[in-house]
Specification:
The complex is a heterodimer of chains A (113) and B (114). With 113 residues, chain A is an all-beta fold. Helix content of chain A is 0%, strand content 57%. In chain A, the strands form 2 sheets. In chain A, strands 2, 4, 5, 9, 10 and 11 form a 6-stranded mixed beta sheet that branches. Chain A has a 5-stranded antiparallel beta sheet with strand order 1-3-8-7-6, with no helix packed on it. In chain A, a hairpin with a 5-residue loop joins β6 and β7. The relative contact order of chain A is 0.34. In chain B, β5 and β6 form a beta hairpin. Chain B has no helices and 11 strands. Chain B is globular. Chain B has 114 residues and is an all-beta fold. In chain B, the strands form 2 sheets. In chain B, strands 2, 4, 5, 6, 9, 10 and 11 form a 7-stranded mixed beta sheet that branches. In chain B, strands 1-3-8-7 form a 4-stranded antiparallel beta sheet, with no helix packed on it. The chains are: A mainly beta (113), B mainly beta (114). Chains A and B meet through β4, β5, β9 and β10 of A and β5 of B.
C-alpha cells in the first residue's frame, strides 16, 4: 500500500518569500504523485501531477514540484508567495492500475504582508 | 458543464437520524468516490465506485452506505447519524480509477450531528 507524509501542518511565509511545502511518499511500485490546493470553504483542485514523463513538474499559479526517487520526495515550491496563495495544500499518491488516491494530512500555508 | 455537484451544502442532524448526501457529475466519469475531511486528518476515503453497479469500501466505511445505479449519481447514505460523523464530505470523480487520472471534486457538504 502507498502512503504520503507531509511535514508541517502549518507553514508561514512573508509575501514575496520562497514557498516550500514538503511531501514524502512510500510506495512499492512507481507512483503517480499529485498536489491539490483547497481554498477556504471550497473543494480541492489540482495544482500539478507527476506521471513519470519529467521529474520537474510545473503547475498552475507558478507552483512547481520535483520528483526525487532517491529521497522519495515530491516537494512543492514557488519562488515568490502571493497573499492569494494562502490555502491548504494536499499531497497525494496513486499507482498504476486499479488504485485509489491516498492523501497526506495537508499543510496550511499562511502568507503575511 | 456543471462538473461535480453536491447537495445539500450544509446539514444539521440529530443523533440517530438518517439522511442521504447527493452527488452528481456530468462528465461521464466512470470512477466516483466519497471522502470525509476532518481537521488534521486530511481526506479519508469512505466508499468508491469504478462504474455503475460496482462499489467498494475505502478506509472509513462504517456507518455509511452507497449505491451506483447510474454513471452520473453516487449518493452517500448515513444510516444512523452519530456525532463522530460530524465532518465535511467531498465527492469526487475521474475518468477511470487510479493511475494518472486527476480527480475532480465537488464543493462539499458540511454535516453537523448533534
Amino acid at each position: 500500500a502507498q502512503s504520503v507524509t507531509q511535514l508541517g501542518s502549518h507553514v508561514s511565509v512573508s509575501e514575496g518569500a520562497l514557498v516550500l511545502l514538503r511531501c514524502n511518499y512510500s510506495s512499492s511500485v512507481p507512483p503517480y504523485l499529485f498536489w491539490y490546493v483547497q481554498y477556504p470553504n471550497q473543494g480541492l483542485q489540482l495544482l500539478l501531477k507527476y506521471t513519470s514523463a519529467a521529474t520537474l513538474v510545473k503547475g498552475i499559479n507558478g507552483f512547481e514540484a520535483e520528483f526525487k526517487k532517491s529521497e522519495t520526495s515530491f516537494h512543492l515550491t514557488k519562488p515568490s508567495a502571493h497573499m492569494s496563495d494562502a490555502a491548504e495544500y494536499f499531497c497525494a499518491v496513486s499507482v498504476t492500475g486499479y488504485s485509489t488516491l491516498t492523501f497526506g494530512k495537508g499543510t496550511m500555508l499562511l502568507v503575511s504582508p | 458543464n456543471a462538473g461535480v455537484t453536491q447537495t445539500p451544502k450544509f446539514q444539521v442532524l440529530k443523533t440517530g437520524q438518517s439522511m442521504t448526501l447527493q452527488c452528481a457529475q456530468d462528465m461521464n466519469h466512470e470512477y466516483m468516490s466519497w471522502y470525509r475531511q476532518d481537521p488534521g486528518m486530511g481526506l479519508r476515503l469512505i466508499h468508491y465506485s469504478v462504474g455503475a453497479g460496482i462499489t467498494d469500501q475505502g478506509e472509513v466505511p462504517n456507518g455509511y452506505n452507497v449505491s451506483r445505479s447510474t454513471t452520473e449519481d453516487f449518493p452517500l447514505r448515513l444510516l444512523s447519524a452519530a456525532p463522530s460523523q460530524t465532518s465535511v464530505y467531498f465527492c469526487a470523480s475521474s475518468p477511470e480509477a487510479g493511475g494518472i487520472n486527476e480527480q475532480f471534486f465537488g464543493p462539499g457538504t458540511r454535516l453537523t450531528v448533534l
